[in-house]
Write the structure tokens for this entry.
Amino acid sequence: MDLLALRHFQTLARLEHVGRAADQLRIAQPSLSRTLTRLEQDLGVPLFDRHGRRIRLNRFGSAFLRRVDRVLAELDDARQELADAAGLARGIVAVATETLLPLTEVLRTFLARHPLVDVRLFQSAATGMADQLRTGEADLCIGSQPLPGKDIHTQVLLDEPVLLCVPTGHRLAGQGRISVAELTGEPFITTPPGYWQRTLVERLFATAGADLHVVCEGEEPEGIFHLIGAGFGIGLVPAFGRRIGLPANVVWLEVADPGCHRVLSVAWRQDSYLSVAAQRFRDHTIEQFSAVLP
């Protein structure tokens, strides 16, 4: 078996769909099918269960995938380590993040210092970040929920309160501090399930026995912020938004619950090689957030 066949198998195992895997690999479906057939013949066992046009990784395939992931990750790490040792000026760092807004200033200052580094961003929910780290799709993850796994190390960037934003003129705008119970039935703007804001608001409302009425789901805090300012609803926004001066017609209220806060962290794998570019981006991110802390 060759490395190309292993990479094709890895992609097919992740997607469990020949057509989508072929599109991602930019090869013809018959060519991918032939590669899989040769690999199974070489191993002497089927790696997938076939159901018409659908395929499903079986127990042999699952066991093989774990080894393939490890082998290919080691080879990718070796290639990157040699490139770093050779002193190449260029580098690549892939970053998965829940939201892009907190990284705008980090990116501006990092690229000013390291113009030849290629930074690639993925906007991801926390549920997929650990997999992105383990498959090597991402070097670093920046998020507000803990990632599972003893092999993942995290460094806190920011520990801050989460505030309630209401439009100017709202019935609660003059209170300054609000209990979650007082928000029952209010039109709420938040993120889809899987993001930290949704997890937080559902926990707060469940604890308070309040009725959560979601009228809009969005992934970008700035978009949520402007919808609140337009009077469409209310929502929870981290204090970071007030610090960077997001422009909108809103009033900020404290929430009378000690659990209404978020911890933003950067995470990376401890058991794999972290390129010089990724190390520099990680350290720069920690430095930048340290500079904005009160």
